[in-house]
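As a warm-up, study this chain.
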Amino acid sequence: MGSSGAADIRQHGSYLGLGLYWAWVTVVFYSDALAPLPSGADGLVEQIWLWATWSHMIGLFACAMLADRLKSLFSNRIFCAGGAVGSALGSAAIPAALLLLDPSSPACGTIVVVAAVFIGFSSAWHVLQWAELYAAGAGHAVASLSLLSFSIGLSLYFLVSLFPSLVATSMTVLLPLFSGLAMAACRSGHDVGAEAAEAAVPSGLPGDLALAVVATFVFALCGEMLRVLSIQIMGGGVDTMGTLYLAGGLVGLLLLTAWFLLPGGRTRTVITPPLVRTVLVIMAVAFLLAPFLGGQALAVSYGIFGAGFWCFRAISWIVCFMLAFRFGYRPVRAVAVLDGAFALSVVVSGQLNLWVAESIKVGRIELTAVSLVAVFVLMLTAIFVLNGKGIGQLLRNENVGEAREGTDTIASSHDDVIAEAVGGIARDFGLSPRETEVAELLAKGRSLPFVQNELYISSGTAQTHARHIYRKLDVHSRQEFLDLVEARLASPRSSGSRIG
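Now compare it with the structure written out below.
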């Protein structure tokens, strides 16, 4: 991606605040930061984790179903702050109850459960707010910003773990608040509500893309199986296993981010079938190694799986926006459905994985058999997904490309001159930065589908920008717009800039 990627990141730096949300998620779900007491809270982390996951899943699926009705709330400042503030309040209520009350008392247990449920719903709303922001304002930098945000989140997990328990708990409470501040900074530079309100999007999940949800569920379910096997067989704690898992995830994300951001990296089609296959192979290798790394060495397998799984999770997040940009699917619904599939895998896997772990311990089934079945399911699902009409076509970039308008095309050899002319028009007529980008592509003869793919915006948003541009310039057709650009190119000040 090189220098252009660095420029995109500098331009959209506040969008990296999503990393603070992922940091909060990892600290809450993979450590005992919310249960800092050394005794009296045994098993409480798992209880918090389960209740929060249940409510998080329900919140995501509810928002997916009601996305069209809730779209006006995404531009409401009070509701926008609700996710961050709610996550922080819930995170503060749990340790406060444990410190002020007897951890074994019914009152404490009730407060913990209510706070965990509150955390789940609040965090669901918060991550969907970020999804809406990324779709509306990140543009073609969405992949690089997403990968960096995931990497920042996992890095902050290890930073928080370095501090004493009470300090780590305080930092955990503050993380969603800082994430909310970063979100406010993003919103101050981009009017999300205006774009989202005018974008025409389909209301249902396309049938040929539903397999992506099934695949996400299967992959996450396999990850939960390996997590439970590692904890049950090794007898490790949440902190220890979380550290191993996230260490592998951080290494994988850093390698993936470096591959994308270093000079020579891809600029648009970062998510390709070979990349997805590589990530899935890493996940499969972790299961294949598990039978040979029994006992304490099983942690190595868990760390390897963490590398593949967190790369897969980041890829899934990016694919949500690819679905929105290419197929006109509402980003909030796409993220809610796929992220909800992750949460659903955690919810339904609890008893199943405990039964599998216990069966391995008593010798009813072999770890080798479990590993081979998991690998078979992973690979079979991957084959269907990568070769399907929906995600497979999306990743292969089929039927998506530049469609020029023939007679509407201004010679591409003058791209720099066109950009300068459009820049002058934008200043004279008060076009926004995003409208200027759209106008420049239109002036070069690009079609609206190309504009949509190039700028990573939905078809409805591309049409909205075109209408706004025509209205501000007082033109009524593509040809009138091109005539205006041609006139600017032929003007003395434009000709002088071409010669000089």
